[in-house]
Amino acid sequence: MTVAVLGSGPVGQTAALLLARWGVPVVLVDEHEVRDPVGSKAICQQRDTLDVWASLGAGCLAEEGLTWTTARTFHRDTELFSLKLPDGGSALPPFVNLSQARVEEVLDELIAAQPLIDIRRGHRVTGVTQPGRVVVECDTAAGPRRIEADYAIAATGARGDTVRRALGQHLAGVSFRDLFLICDIRADLPGWAAERRFWFDPPWNPGRQVLIHPCPGSQFRIDWQVPEDYDLAAEETGGALDRRIRAILGDRPYEVVWRSVYRFHTRLVERMRAGRVLLAGDCAHLVAPFGARGLNSGVADAENAAWKLAWVLRGDAGEELLESYHTERHAAAVENAEVTTATMDFLVPQDEARRRRRAEVLAGGVHAEVDSGRLAEPFWYTDSPLTTPDPRRPFAGRPPRGALPPPGPGVLLPDVTVPAGRLRALAREGFLLLTTPGVDADGVRSVEIPVGGALGARPGEAWLVRPDAYVAAVLRQPTRSDIERAWSAAAGRECSGRF
């Protein structure tokens, strides 16, 4: 029983490693013979993404990444506000910045050491069909090749049009007219190493925005919003790029390590499950990068897909469980699109009324109304068919920026440790029941937790946690039948008889 993972960017790499951890053989397909080691690209890794990678043996990414804890927002020369990121009680930082190239390098090392992953480089996918199994047609230097698998994860990125067409999908949505110039700069900027800085309408980019992220090795990623007719080559030749950079750095020496120009999009496929193929990451959804919701959401796609495919392939769930992948992750993509579209509408107002409104908000400096990007956070599966609601813990909706909802059904388990160990690590070994003293969990894989604490557990409760560390149900004085019903719902089928 094999899964083909199409595309070996960070999302595909993560999916392959997670599947292998569950004991599933993987064929990892990528069109490139070698990696492109240049450029920061996707640089912002959120705590829960780092947690997934740490569970795979890549804890060094959290250690190597540059931790930033403060997000500063300016209007022209005036600082409007700063946001301190909460530590969340976790040993992992809320965010780190690390180049995508380094992430790929570390994950490639883990893949090379994993015997269940067969990597096929230099394989350009030309077609995908599903005559019972998944058949992937590829072009290689040695000629056409065919790969067969029971299921597939399509993580071929934004340019994965061939795969999307083969699956009857396309990225519907909008593209923004303005461009964004991105430069990786190496320079000495004292005091900037732990802060993300965002400017509305700075004097050195009037009428538009600038975002600066610190990176390891005295590097800084600078994003300028520029007009749609911007010409990078002409600006470099005429010296305007140097003047643009020096308007920020002053007379300090600097080195341009990498530069590129991007157009941002908000686009989403209609279906993230197409038969036996699950679409993930940029292959399924594109959002503007303000808030770092692209890569982080893609890693969440990978974890959601991996445990569900593993349960189906092991016979612990029926194929209907895979439909919940679309239900849960498409809803997450819709929320990300809503959040980032609101940000882009504030950054680049589309009409005069919105421009006036933005000017009023910035002049007033009201923190809650200034939108420079809501930072990436987990999506909460409170409306999922796999979640058993608890009327004592109703979900109050999206919390304020920088805050997390209280623990409960559909919410990612807080990163806490009990005498038995770290709860998320224990959950990622399979379904787990957390019990308070007095609850009978005979025959069920369980861990006793204290009343109160980070979960706010109450006497006589049992918390059922999924293999991706999301809470599936909170049960009060449960019987064995109560536990089995919640477990069956969380696995998308009748109870298979084992946790």
Question: What can you tell me about this protein's structure?
Answer:
The protein is α+β, with helices and mostly antiparallel strands. Among the domains are: 3-56 and 99-172 and 266-344, FAD/NAD(P)-binding domain (3-Layer(bba) Sandwich), CATH 3.50.50; 383-499, Glutaredoxin. 27% of the residues lie in helices and 28% in strands. It is built from twelve helices and 26 strands. The protein has helices at 10-21, 47-55, 60-64, 100-112, 161-166, 232-238, 240-249, 294-313, 323-347, 352-364, 423-427, 480-491; strands spanning 3-6, 26-29, 44-46, 66-67, 70-75, 78-84, 95-97, 117-120, 124-129, 134-140, 143-149, 151-154, 172-187, 195-200, 209-215, 219-226, 254-268, 273-274, 277-279, 285-286, 417-418, 421-422, 432-435, 446-448, 461-465, 471-476. The strands form six sheets. An eight-stranded mixed beta sheet has the order 6-5-14-15-16-13-17-20, covered by helices on one side. Strands 8-2-1-12-19-18 form a six-stranded mixed beta sheet.
